[in-house]
């Protein structure tokens, strides 16, 4: 499960984000979101524009990644699985929150969704594997 956690974190970090007149990877917004969170807090509002949601997405995704990393250091199998489930759910929520919107009005939602497809496929299969292992205990 160590390999799956690391690949999930990597694929999520490499989701391409349209920002201003350029492109960036989600990992940059993970790092930039920490000072923004300390200053403004977090507000999950699906009515915000794509650009206004980026820092919230970055903070949600860095929390999910940290939880997955913490899961790597857990000794008990059940706690590893719980950390993996919570981390994957947070990362999936970050992608949903980022790509939710009017795709006809703003193409940035569809653009980010397109680059998140490898992460979505891998994370869903990883999630199924964790659930199957949890059911076998």
**Share of helix among residues?**
over 70%
What is the helix tally? 5
- Molecular shape: globular
Give the class from helix and strand content and strand pairing: mainly alpha
What strand line-up does the widest sheet have?
1-2
Radius of gyration: 15 Å
Largest sheet report: 2 strands, antiparallel
Strand content of the residues, in percent?
5-15%
Mean pLDDT: 91
Find the count of extended strands (DSSP E, 2+ residues).
2
Low-confidence stretches: none
Order of helices and strands: HEEHHHH
Domain count: the total is: 1
Report, as a whole number of angstroms, the end-to-end distance. 15 Å
Fold and architecture overview:
The chain has 137 residues and is mainly alpha-helical. The chain has one domain. It has five helices and two strands.
Task: Give a concise summary.
The chain has helices spanning 2-13, 26-40, 50-72, 77-99, 108-136; strands spanning 16-19, 22-25.
Key features of this structure:
137 residues; mainly alpha; two-stranded antiparallel sheet; 5 helices; 2 strands; 74% helix
Write the layout of secondary structure elements.
Elements: H1 2-13, E1 16-19, E2 22-25, H2 26-40, H3 50-72, H4 77-99, H5 108-136
Antiparallel strand pairs: 1-2
Helix pairs in contact: 1-3, 1-5, 2-3, 3-4, 4-5
